[in-house]
Amino acid sequence: MKQLKRPPKAIIFIAVTALGVGAAAIFYTQSKPAGGVASKAPKPALTVSTIKAETTRLPIQLSANGSIAAWQEAVIGSEVNGLRLTEVRVNVGDTVKLGQVLATFALDSVQAELAQSQASVAEAEANAADAAGNAGKARTLQASGAISEQQINQYLTLEKTAQAKLEVARATRTVQQVRLRQTQVLAPDSGVISARTATVGAVVGNGAELFRMIRGGRLEWRAEVTSTELGRLAPGTLASVLAANGVELQGRVRMIAPSVDPLTRSALVYVDLPSSVGKLKAAAGSQLLAPVKAGMFARGEFDLGTSTARTLPQQAVVIRDGFSYVFVLREDSHVSQRKVQIGRRLGERVEVVSGLEPDAVLVASGAGFLNDGDLVRVEVAGAPASAQDTQVNRPLAPAAPAQAAIK
Fold first, then answer.
1. What is the sign of the dihedral through the CA atoms of 389, 394, 397 and 399?
2. CB 157: neighbour CB atoms within 10 A?
3. Contact assessment for residue 273 and residue 309, using Cβ atoms and an 8 Å cutoff
4. Which CATH number, 3.10.180.10, 3.40.50.2020, 2.40.50.100, 1.10.357.140, labels domain 76-106+183-216?
5. Global model pTM greater than 0.85
6. Which CATH number fits domain 46-56+308-378: 3.30.200.20, 3.30.1330.10, 2.40.420.20, 2.40.10.120?
7. Which of the 8 DSSP states describes residue 175?
């Protein structure tokens, strides 16, 4: 037989290929971990701190809306008829005192009528004195029989008639004196002028409205409370009122309306507001101006006491899709997303009403970056986490090629 000969190049190529396959197999066998699984340990998504719900006492409050109104608004009108206004001394917003002159009417016609009535009184006094003298003489001569009984009765009647005319004249003079005093419009109480219709030169009739005044400057909050919540309130209950301009006042319930509106099924609760709270001094003078005005919208809360509640820091609660969630730490360092119901709030803490076990360990910080089932690293007390641990892990950029060795 003839021996087969192969080209030398083919033999060399086959040998090099076999050596390469063997080296790769040896490298793969040495780099493969025990157990036969070529995997890498999972990396935590975030370093977090943990907390548990705390039991605290939170205030029980009833919220309501309403308007600020005057405690009592007095209507100041004209008491004279057909007189002309000559002076108006106050305007809307002015603070007035009891008995202060607000406006004056023309005095000419009233003074003339008063002078006439005084003259009538003087005439009536003279006639009454003359009639009284004649009646006295008639009584003296009655026993002697010098004059008849008819004449004596006439003198006595004239005395009574003159006395009656004198009383009429005096009453007329009193009426004119009252009219003279009524030419000055006086404040019936201390307070703040809230409206003015008086105009200089106008001739007003009897009873015409000239001013409106908030008595004592006192305001009240008229809160609208539903009939179902009305039984929780009573006179004397404290209330915190926040006006539309940001001014906050403290008041007390004065009274509750005796009836409920059949359309809205709500009743008014009257809360007294202190007239001296929140006043500011005007820059141009010493007049005090209340920042809260009648007619403002205001919302407030009634203080109904306190109750025990489980609370969490606000940062531990995550709002997603309109619902509240917390992340519960499991024993395997993974987190579970749990839906909870949130109640009252006090500062940076919120009440958990339902959906949470009493001894559950929760993620306190960074909950907004987690998803259900994520692996986390629990921060050790006293050892602050690095900047990389406090951020969500993201794929790293490819490493730059190694530089050449320093020559």
1. positive
2. 12
3. no
4. 2.40.50.100
5. no
6. 2.40.420.20
7. H
Residue 220: C-alpha distances to residues 60, 196, 362 (Å): 23, 22, 46
Neighbours of 246 (CB within 10 A): 7
345: tokens are: 């709030």
DSSP class of residue 334? B
| 211-224: average pLDDT | 93
* Owner of token pair 């090099």: 16
| Contact between 268 and 224 (Cβ < 8 Å) | yes
Residue 279 confidence (pLDDT): 43
pLDDT tens by residue, 140-176: 877 777 778 888 888 889 989 999 999 999 999 999 9
Lowest mean pLDDT of 47-61, 284-298, 333-347, 363-377, name the range. 284-298
Q: Are 44 and 334 in contact (CB under 8 A)?
A: no
**What are the residue ranges spanned by the domains of the chain?**
46-56+308-378, 62-71+217-306, 76-106+183-216, 108-181
Q: Distances from the Cα of 248 to the Cαs of 277, 297, 298, 318, 344, in angstroms?
A: 9, 12, 9, 31, 20
H or E element at residue 74: strand 73-77
User: In three state form, how does the secondary structure of 340-397 look?
Assistant: EEEEEEECCEEEEEECCCCCCCEECCCHHHCCCCCEEEECCCCCCCCCCCCCCCCCCC
What superfamily would CATH give domain 108-181?
Helix hairpin bin (1.10.287.470)
**Distance in angstroms (rounded) separating the CA atoms of residues 354 and 337:** 14
Q: Confirm or reject CATH 2.60.40.60 for domain 62-71+217-306, answering yes or no.
A: no
> Would you call 109 exposed, middle or buried from its count of C-beta atoms within 10 A (0-12, 13-18, 19+)?
middle
Helix (H, G, I), strand (E, B) or coil at 235: coil
Query: DSSP strand E in 78-178: where?
Result: 83-88, 95-96, 101-105
